[in-house]
Amino acid sequence: MGHWLVIDLEATTDDGGWPITDMEIIEIGASLVNREGREVDHFQRFVKPRRRPQLTPFCRELTHISQANVDAAAPFGEVWAQFERWLGHYQPRLEGWTSWGDYDRKQLLQEWQANGLDSLLAQVPHLNLKQRFAKARHLQRPLGLNGALQLAGLQFNGQQHRALEDARNTARLLPLTLPLQGS
What we know:
37% helix; six-stranded mixed β-sheet; globular; Nucleotidyltransferase, domain 5
C-alpha cells in the first residue's frame, strides 16, 4: 500500500502579497498519509530566510510565526537535508506528493534551484489538489482550503496558515478527491 505526501509551506510576504521570486520559505509542514488519508508520520520545521530575515508585521500576524521562531531556525539547505533524510525512509512507498494549489511546488523549485539542491520529490509526481478538488466537485473555479473543507462538511482543525496544520487539513480532502482505495 502506497503513501501520499501532503506539503504546505509558509513564506515571507507582506500585505498585498509579493511575487513568488521575492518570497522565501519560513516553515515546512508535511503530513505523510496512507491511502485512507490517515497520517503515518509528519515533519515540521521553521526555516531562517536569507534575503529578508526580518518578518513583516503582516507575515507574523498571518502565520502566527514569531521572529524568534525563524531567528532560531536553520537555513533552507540544512532544513531540506533534514526533510530528505526523513522522507528517505518512506520513498519506496511514496506514490506522489500534493499541495493545495501550485504555489508550494513552484516555491520549492525556486528554493532547490537557488540552493543548488536535488530532491527526492522531483522524482515523484505532484498533484495540485486544489484543481483536482474543483474538477471532482464540478466547481466553476477552485476554492481556498477552508472553503473546500466547508463544502466537504468539514471544519478546519488547528491554526490556519501554519504549515503542518494546513498540510493535515489538506490531507483530509485527499480521500474525498482521489480514488485512493484500490486504485
